[in-house]
Design a protein that fits this description.
The chain is built from one helix and nine strands, in the order βββββββββα. The protein is mainly beta. A hairpin with a 6-residue loop joins strand 8 and strand 9. The longest helix has 13 residues. Bound molecules: fe (ii) ion (FE2).
């Protein structure tokens, strides 16, 4: 789902591929609604810097594992930030525990 980091980040792909959708806030919209503003496809051996204010979401478009190294310019789990409901695209507080559960589920698979 779309989310912010509230810090700079660099993503480097070491296997597979990922598609990033870049989002922007709709001015004056209630509930922090967003719209798609761009995209960036990343392949193996590519890196992508993300600025502090970027809103992005990521999908794996291929039928196998994609692996990436993410470097963040701060405390990824300690900084309050936002995520967006994937159906309604409304802003919500980032749920760290949900992200940790998703990471664990993905690692088990
Ligand atoms: Fe991210």
């Amino acid at each position: 789902m779309p989310h912010t980091h509230e810090m700079w980040a660099v993503i480097g792909i070491y296997t597979g591929r990922e598609d990033n959708i870049l989002w922007r806030r709709l001015p004056g919209e209630a509930q922090g609604r967003i719209e798609a503003a761009g995209a960036k496809a990343l392949s193996e051996r590519e890196a992508f810097p993300l600025g502090r204010d970027i809103i992005h979401s990521v999908t794996n478009p291929i039928g196998r594992l994609t692996g990436a190294i993410h470097v963040y310019g701060g405390d990824f789990f300690g900084v309050p930030r936002s995520e967006w409901d994937p159906e309604r695209l409304v802003e919500l507080p980032y749920d760290v525990q949900k992200t940790l559960r998703l990471f664990e589920e993905s690692n088990r698979r």
